[in-house]
Amino acid sequence: MTTLLKELFDATVDGDRETVLTTVAQALETGEEPGVILNEGLIAAMAEVGARFERAEFYVPEMLIAARAMQAGLAVLQPHLVAAKVKKVGTVIAGTVKGDLHDIGKNLVSMMLEGAGFEIIDLGTDVPPEKFVEAVRESSPDLLAMSALLTTTMPGMKLTVEALRAAGVRNGVKIMVGGAPLTQRYADEIGADGYAADASKAVRLAKSLVA
Asked: Could you tell me the pTM of the whole model?
């Protein structure tokens, strides 16, 4: 790893947005490949952030700060990745189910997945089953990630899985679910492909589902 990429890695882990922006620009100017900047700088850094979270060295605020710094760098890098035809890991449609306006968990998972090389299509909050179905039809994603923070909105996940089946698009997409009241058992009951208790585990699950 070059000195610049190590600086980018450290700045991303630390959530130092300004240094991330500066080092991404400098790395591009010095002729570093966009894919190398992405993988060795940003993706590797977010993997370290996830590892620190699992070791209880980082908590949600630190993860959010690092993820926002990563997103800033990615925004600069994105046109160069497209021009270099760097392949994404997969496409994820994300949303909080109907009746639920909570988005911190969804946003953190989306940012962590983006930091792992996934393209994110964020439908926002209060998303009804038919909107999930429409998005899956339009984008043919690899994954659908649903979030719920309220026990009263959890049934929206089951309704969405049923709507995807009724529309004939269920088999073409892997479904992962998460949120404070959820369990692996509930995920199994509604026919989801996986459950993640936090953003770090969500990245690992997403990678395994598209492998």
From this structure: 0.90
How far is residue 126 from each of residues 26, 106, 113, measured CA to CA in Å? 41, 12, 21
Indicate the residue among 83, 114, 131 that finishes a domain. Answer: 83
Coil, strand or helix at 102 = coil
Query: Rg (Cα) of the chain, in Å, rounded?
Result: 17
Residues whose CB falls within 8 Å of the CB of residue 173, separated by 6 or more in sequence, listed in order? 93, 136, 140, 141, 142, 143, 144, 164
Same domain, 74 and 19: yes
Domain that holds residue 198: 90-210
**Residue 124 tokens, joined:** 């926002």
Tell me which residue has tokens 């992962």: 176
Domain identity same for 108 and 151: yes
pLDDT of residue 1: 82
Do residue 138 and residue 190 come from a single domain?
Answer: yes
| Domain final residue, candidates 17, 51, 83 | 83
Count: domains in the chain: 2
**Cβ count near 75 (within 10 Å):** 11
Q: How does pLDDT run across 85-128, given as a tens digit for each residue?
A: 998 999 999 999 999 999 999 999 999 999 999 999 999 999 99
3-state secondary structure of 92: strand
pLDDT one-digit tens code per residue, 172-185: 999 999 999 999 99
